[in-house]
Amino acid sequence: MDDRLRAHLELAELSDEEFVRRAYRFVLRRDPEVEALERTVPRATLLRELVASEEFARLAAIDEAIAAAGEGRFLEAPSGTDERLIEIPWALARVRPGDRVLDVGTANAEPAYVAALLGHEAAEIAGVDLAEADVPGIPAVVADVRDMPFEDGAFDLVLCVSTLEHVGRDNRVYGGGAEADPRGIPAALEELRRVLAGEGRLVVTVPCGEPEDHGWFVQLEPDAWNEEFVAAGFRVLEEEIYALGPEGWRAEPEFEPAGVRYRAAASAVLCATLAPVSGARRVARRARGAVARRGGGGTAPPTAPPPPGRAAG
Ligand SMILES: C[S@@+](CC[C@H](N)C(=O)[O-])C[C@H]1O[C@@H](n2cnc3c(N)ncnc32)[C@H](O)[C@@H]1O
Known about the structure:
Elements: H1 3-13, H2 16-28, H3 34-38, H4 43-52, H5 54-67, H6 84-92, E1 100-104, H7 111-119, E2 124-129, E3 140-142, E4 155-161, H8 184-195, E5 196-207, E6 212-213, E7 218-219, H9 222-231, E8 234-245, E9 248-251, E10 268-276, H10 281-296
Parallel strand pairs: 1-2, 1-4, 2-3, 4-5
Antiparallel strand pairs: 5-10, 6-7, 8-9, 8-10
Bound molecules: S-adenosylmethionine.
Residues 105, 107-110, 128-131, 144-146, 161-163, 166-167, 171, 174, 176, 311, 313 line the site of S-adenosylmethionine.
């Protein structure tokens, strides 16, 4: 039998409902809403609509960004996309075969990120989040990143994508509690340092620009983030700042934070790889007061947290 005829006949055997389910799973990688199951529309039209949707455009952009990441430097993402298009490939590009990996903020991770992380040849992957979530393939512990149930030096690599800025803040949108703890970020960094092996690395991505306190997260200037890292006993191994411009997301080696505001999503992100400095703790704690003051003063109007499931922050 002709291949094309076989394909037609196979599809004809599917009920309309089953076709819609499979189309959604294949294109949008999720189940359809009830209304989508109730629509009567030609099958080719449905596929055309799904592929033309903004939802698919974002999925495709993430796939393409991950595939094009290479060594994870000077990444690019199209305009109209959010910061995850930079943060995700930047972080994934730093996973090495054999790493014992901890993913922080795993409960709300993008499925494409989780799938790609599991595709790496890491020796072990664990997750931690305040919120509970079933993340197949990543044993996720429900815990506060400021106090984790892991041994000292348990991980070679900690990935902290778009999470540090939420620690000690109002996390109700993610299923956590509401806090306004100025020690949240330093406490998280110190705990992350504890669970890293001596030669370990912390990969962190955070929004940067003008200092802003949005209640559910903070945005800091790059210098202020770096002060936090150093004060917690890290040294910066590498760092890139990306900003959203008319051409899309691009690396900005000469980034100027003045006027860079968080809007519906970040306008700039700082991506860094940090290494623990042995014996740096005491110095770190002495520097703490100045850093905490600098990070605390937000002036911008707060933004609304995203609806559950949307990547932001
Ligand atoms: C914006 S989401 C980021 C999710 C994911 N990493 C990503 O890249 O899309 C922030 C996550 O941080 C988690 N979180 C906030 N504060 C936390 C804390 N103190 N300890 C552990 N997880 C925390 C939230 O529950 C949420 O899942």
